[in-house]
Design brief:
CATH topology: Rossmann fold
Shape: globular
Number of domains: 1
CATH class: Alpha Beta
CATH architecture: 3-Layer(aba) Sandwich
Number of helices: 7
Helix content: 25-40%
Number of strands: 8
Length: about 200
């Protein structure tokens, strides 16, 4: 949980808030257990933010597996258990307004199938690591992410490999190395230049 908060909230969402946008549109690459959506909901609630959240996952985690996780209890936030249960019970491909400040759509598809253009302020790139799935850390994928972001939009990931940074730079991102979460030396934040 601390890694998710460090990478996606502190290094991503907080930086995105500097844009002054009223609604923050987030694309999550790899919905997985729903942890990133949960910590984003908590942060949005605490800061009274409006979030439009799209999560893409090709291989959803089984509900029985998710129910074994203790994330909602660990978060110690009123309503966390209900929110966590709601996001996992939502049908795929449906836009659901969970409360007046948080809207979620889960999309079951491969990352290569994303075709959004300049729709998002922020990308949480939480795919399996480059050693496990190198095909997800390519110029092709980062080109799709670049196109999906609005000008000035940000992509954050826990990865810090040189090949990942170079792929991001090749498609047009300005890339920063930042201190990583506990146990990791560095992470990357990529920004799409404003025209």
């Amino acid at each position: 949980m601390r890694e998710a908060e460090h990478v996606f909230i502190n290094s991503g969402l907080h930086k995105t808030l500097e844009s002054g946008e009223e609604t923050i549109s987030i694309l999550e690459i790899g919905f997985g257990t729903g942890l990133n959506a949960l910590v984003t909901w908590k942060e949005a609630k605490g800061k009274n933010l409006t979030i439009s959240y799209t999560a893409v996952e090709a291989y959803p985690v089984a509900l029985e597996e998710v129910e074994k996780l203790n994330f909602a209890e660990e978060l110690q936030e009123e309503g966390a258990r209900e929110f966590f249960r709601t996001i996992h019970n939502l049908p795929w491909e449906t836009i659901k307004t969970i409360n007046s400040k948080f809207q979620l759509q889960k999309q079951k598809k491969f990352f290569q199938e994303i075709s959004d253009i300049e729709k998002y302020n922020l990308v949480y790139f939480d795919a399996f690591g480059a050693r496990v799935q190198p095909e997800l850390w390519t110029e092709e994928i980062f080109g799709i992410m670049f196109n999906a972001l609005k000008p000035g939009g940000i992509l954050v990931t826990y990865a810090a490999k040189g090949s990942v940074r170079r792929a991001m730079q090749t498609v047009g991102f300005t890339v920063e190395r930042l201190p990583g979460p506990p146990g990791k030396r560095e992470m990357l934040r990529a920004t799409k230049p404003v025209h």
